[in-house]
Amino acid sequence: MNTLNHWAPTFDCETCSREFNSQNAANQHMNATNHWAPRIECETCNDMFQTQSAADQHMSEYGHYRNYCKPCGRRFNNENNLRAHLNSRIHRGTEISCPFCKARFVSTSGVSHHLETSSCPQAQSLNRTSIAQMVRRADPHGIITNKFIEYPDHDEGTYTATRAAYNGQAWECYICHRQLASSNGLNQHANSPVHQQSIYHCPNQGRNCTKQFVSLAGFFNHLESESCGFIRFENVQAAQRQLTDAMAGRRMIAGVF
Known about the structure:
Elements: E1 11-12, E2 19-20, H1 23-33, E3 40-41, E4 48-49, H2 52-62, E5 68-69, E6 74-75, H3 79-86, H4 89-92, E7 96-97, E8 104-105, H5 108-116, H6 128-137, E9 171-172, E10 179-180, H7 183-191, E11 200-201, E12 212-213, H8 216-225, H9 233-247
Antiparallel strand pairs: 1-2, 3-4, 5-6, 7-8, 9-10, 11-12
Helix pairs in contact: 5-8, 8-9
């Protein structure tokens, strides 16, 4: 057998040095002695475990889940959900204030929505259109604003639903035919930016981000999401302050983004 290499094949235990003449015998041994090699990986480190429960216990104790908030003890399905949680009111608080009424918000996009919807009691003359005009004047090179042949110089007006919008079952948008339960719902839908032209675009041309936005709030929400990697969430607030300076004529947007 040595000369011809006719030895019978052997089957190793996955843990100890014992060998067996058949895989079935090896399996019986490993079952009896719990000698199966660990197969469950930690999501972060190189540790391996026999069971999922043992792996979960380890990852919970050391915060080794891949998408895990250790202070809250919460797991998330993906990195984007974890990032949104870390950038929420729970961890960020309300650090950002309206420059007019000083109401506090979690994010720059929240302040922008507050102003674009004329919700600020100290700046009710501001709305989506007037803010867009100020941003456009500060952005002659179109770094974040789209260039239009003719730019609107007045507010788009307010849509108010009439009985003609009721189709017998619901209040229907004449543009997209979405059906709303009430005339107030239709008014809110029709007066939202959903059917308006995009004014802003992502400045991240280096990575060919083609995202377009109908509102400044949408623009800042995109940057805060870090989805295209152009700017970190914590740096968006500084960019918003500089943009406010640009809108006030103290600088150009070219020096912001």
